[in-house]
Amino acid sequence: MEHDLKKIISQMTLEEKAGMCSGLDFWHLKHVDRLGIPEVMVSDGPHGLRKQDDKGDHLGMNDSIKAVCFPPACLAACSFDRDLMHEMGSAIGREAQANDVSVVLGPAVNIKRSPLCGRNFEYYSEDPYLAGEIAAAFINGVQSEHVGTSIKHFAANNQEYHRMSGSSEVDERTLREIYFPAFETAVKKAQPYTFMCSYNQINGTFASENKWLLTDVLRGDWGFEGYVMSDWGAVNDRVPGLIAGLDLEMPGSGGFNDAEIVKAVKDGSLDEAVLDQAVERILRIIYLYADNHTPQEFTMEADHEEARRIAEESMVLLKNDGVLPLNPSEKIAFIGGFAKNPRFQGGGSSHINCFRTASALDSLPEHAQVTYAEGFPADRDAYDEMLAAAAIKAAENADKAVIFAGLPDSFESEGYDRSHMQLPSCQNRLISEILKVQPNTIVVLHNGSPVELPWRHEVKGILEAYLGGQAGGAAVTRILFGAVNPSGKLAETFPEKLSDNPSYLFFGDGDKVEYREGIYVGYRYYDTKEMPVAYPFGYGLSYTTFAYSNLRLDKETMTDSDTLHVSFDITNTGSTAGKEIVQLYIRDLTGSTNRPLKELKGFEKVSLEPGETKTVTIELDYRSFAWYSTNLGDWYAAGGSYEIQVASSSRDIRLLAKVTLKTARVLPLHVHKNTTLGELCRNPRTKEIAEKLANQILAGMGAGASEAASEAISDEMNTAMIDSMPLRALRSFTGMSGEEMDGIIKQFRAAADGNV
C-alpha cells in the first residue's frame, strides 16, 4: 500500500510528531488513530524472540512468551555459513510475524576486543569481515519475512563496565577498519530496517548525539535508509540527539523529552524539518511492517529441530586424539552438571523463555552405555568431595569419560564483564583428578567466550559447544557419537592466557577506555606478533580430512576497477562425508603502511562426499586489498605485490599466490618544512625529485672524509639519517639559503599535487 508520508506528517500536530520520536512504553511505538498510524511492537531477539507477555512489567524485566532459543551468536558465527544464517533469520522472522512483532532487536555485531566482555556471547567474532557477512545473511533472512531488524550496538561498545557513560577513545582508522565494517557490510548487503545506537561515548561524544557517527558515516558514507533508535536509556540530551540523527528514543521519558523537542521547535533552536524527517523515517518502517503483516504458520517443534541443526553445523572440534566419535558399545561416563542441565544461552536482555530444552543425557542414541555422575554443579564454583568421588569412580570404571564443563550464568552476563578467563576452579580440579584414572578423557565446553584450558595437552578430545541454544545438548550428543561430522571453526582466537590479549592493559579502565592496540585485534595481533595461542582463529577439526590444490588467479595484475577471481580445488581425502570451511587471507607486501600480517577477505563452507572434489571461487575487489587512510578520507591500496593465502585457519596456510595491483590513486602528501626526505622518496609523485636531492646530500656527506670518519659513519647510517631528515635540515647540512629551501618546498608541493 502506498502512503503519502509527507501528507500524513503535515496533518500531525507538533506534539504528535514529537511523540512519534519516543516509545509508548517499553516495547511499543506510539500510534495516531485519527491518521491511521498503527501501534507496532519491537522485541529483543538476536537468537530468538523475547516478547514480553501481557502480564509483564513496564520495565520489560518479567516473563516473556515461550519461544525457540536458537544458538547465540558466539556459536552461530562458527558455522561460517551465510545460507544457514539466512535460514535462522527467516525462522525468527516467521515467529515474530506470528506474534505481531515488527522489529527484532538484533543482530549484535560488536567486535570481540577482549575475552572479558560480559556480552561476548551475543557477538559474532573478533573479525569484522566475518561478522559483517554473517550479520547481513541473518538480516536478509529476518527481513524476508517483512519483519525488521535493529543491528546493534553502534558503535565501539566492547565492554559492559561503565557502558552507559564511558568513552571509547579510538582513532578513526581503527574505527573504520575494525569496529565499523560489520555495520557497513550489513547496510550495503542487507539494509536493516533500523540501527540501534550504543550507550557509550566515542571520543567524548555520546553515540546518541554523535552527528559524525549517525549522519555523516551511517547515512552519508554508507547510504542507510531506515531509522536510528537508542539503546534503552541511552539518550543523553534529546534535542542534540535528534539533530545528530537519533530518530527514536526508547523506551521514552514519560513525555519529558517530547516536551523538550516541542519547546526547541517553538523557540527556533530546532528546525521543524529535522523533526519531520525523523518522523518520516519512523513512519516508513512502521508501514513497511503493517502493510505486509500476515499470520504465519510455524511450529516450535520444527524450529527446535532447526535450532539443533544450526548448533550441529557450528560446534567446533578442538582436539581429537583418536577418541571420537564414541561407539555406543563402549562404556561411557558423562560427568558434570552441564550434561543434565546445559547452559545454552547468556543472561540479560537476550534471554529466551524456551518452550523446551534438550540435554546431552536426554539425547543419547539407542543402546548407548552411558552412566552419569554430577561431579560438580552447573550453577556455581563449589568442589563437593562426595560428588567428585562418585565422578572419579564412574570415570575409572568406564572406557571413556566425557566431562561437560563450562561457565555458570554468574560468570558472564550482560551488565558486567568477566574478571578472568578461567573456568570454575572446581571443574579444573575434577578434570585433573579424572585424568589420573582415565586417560581417554574428553571435555565438552559450554561458554560464551574463550577460557583458559590448563589441561588441554592431557585430555584426548575437546569439543567447543559454546552456548548451543535450546537443542544444543542434542547437537553435542550427535557429534560425540558420530551421527554428525563436526564442521564449525573458531570465530575468535583462544589465547594461552588472558595477559596475551592485546587489550589486556587497557580494557575496562575508568571512564575513558583507550583502544591503544588499534587495528591489532584478535588474530591480527597474535599472528603478526607470531605469538603462541591455544587455538587460532578459523581453526576446527573434522572426522575426515581435506586436501587443497590447484590454486589459480584469473589475472596476475589487476587495476583499481578490476575484480580478481581466485579459484582452487578442495578434496575430501577421508572416508566420511564432511564440510570444510575454506578461508582466504590477504597479506600486503607493499610496505606502504603498518598492517596486520594477514586479513580475512573471503570464506566458503564446502560439503564433500568421500573422495569428492569441488572447485571454490572467491571474488576480490579493490576494497579487499585496502586500508583506511585518514589523510585521503577513503580506502586506499598501494600499488605493488599482495599475497593471496588460501587456508584452513589463520595459522594453517595451504596455498599461496601473488597478484600485482596497479593503481592511479596516490595518497595526499602535505609538504612542509618538517616533511622527511624518506616520505618524499616513497611517494610516487615526489620520488624522482627526492631521490636526486638525497643522492646529492649523501655524496656531500662522504666527500673528503678521513679513514677514521668512514669507520665511524657507515653508509647504512647515512641512509637512515637521510630517510628521517626533515626538509628544514637542508639549511644545516647543505648550506642552502632560506629562499632556496622555500623553493624546494614549493617544487615538492607542486609535484605532490600532480602539477609537475
Which key terms come to mind for this protein?
756 residues, alpha/beta, TIM Barrel, Rossmann fold, Immunoglobulin-like, 6-stranded mixed sheet, 22 helices, 29 strands, 30% helix
DSSP helix fraction: 25-40%
Major beta-sheet overview: 6 strands, mixed
Q: Can you name the CATH architecture of the largest domain?
A: Alpha-Beta Barrel
Number of strand segments: 29
Q: N-to-C terminal Cα separation, in Å?
A: 59 Å
Q: What's the helix count?
A: 22
β-strand amount: 15-25%
Number of separate domains: 4
The coarse silhouette is globular
Structural class by helix and strand composition: alpha/beta
CATH superfamily of the largest domain: Glycoside hydrolase, family 3, N-terminal domain
CATH classification class of the largest domain: Alpha Beta
What's the average pLDDT? 93
- What is the radius of gyration computed over CA atoms, rounded to a whole number of angstroms? 29 Å
CATH fold name of the largest domain, please?
TIM Barrel
**Strands of the biggest beta sheet: in what spatial order?**
10-16-15-14-11-13
Low-confidence stretches: 55-59
